[in-house]
Design brief:
Elements lengths: L2 H15 L32 E3 L10 E13 L9 H14 L4 E11 L6 E12 L3
């Protein structure tokens, strides 16, 4: 009687190893293949925005004032990298470009402390201009 369970166990184990399975074939989808997205044209490079630091540089050049524009660089906590004025100036140019300006008359760049959400902050403020060529 003891040999019967051992024999059954041996037969079951050997039977499982003799099973050979064929590799699973991929299922063919009946859905229509997705259409390729149309190629979108790349946006044109934005025109670089020139920074004027003195109003005298604009004398004799026709221009249109598009409004005030600013750029900032924020240091969130004391452990973060400090804010810097070149980053604030670059963001000033980017924001002026969004207003379709090709120049900025820079009024000021300052580093302040205690601004809401920033430990220290560099802010540059100017006027976005559209200077036309003669």
């Amino acid at each position: 009687m003891r040999a019967l369970p051992i024999c059954l166990l041996a037969v079951m184990l050997s039977g499982c190893t003799m099973l050979s399975r064929s590799p699973v074939e991929p299922v063919q989808s009946t859905a229509t293949p997705p259409k390729p997205e149309p190629v979108k044209p790349k946006p044109a490079k934005p025109v670089p925005v020139r920074i004027y630091t003195h109003a005298e540089e604009l004398v004799g050049k026709p221009f249109r004032d598009l409004g005030e524009v600013s750029g900032e660089s924020c240091q969130v906590s004391n452990q973060d990298s400090p804010p810097n004025i070149p980053t604030a100036r670059k963001r000033l140019q980017i924001n002026a470009s969004k207003m379709k300006a090709n120049a900025v008359l820079l009024h000021s760049c300052d580093i302040t402390s205690g601004t809401l959400g920033c430990y220290r902050q560099a802010v540059c403020v100017g006027s976005a201009l559209n200077v036309s060529a003669k």
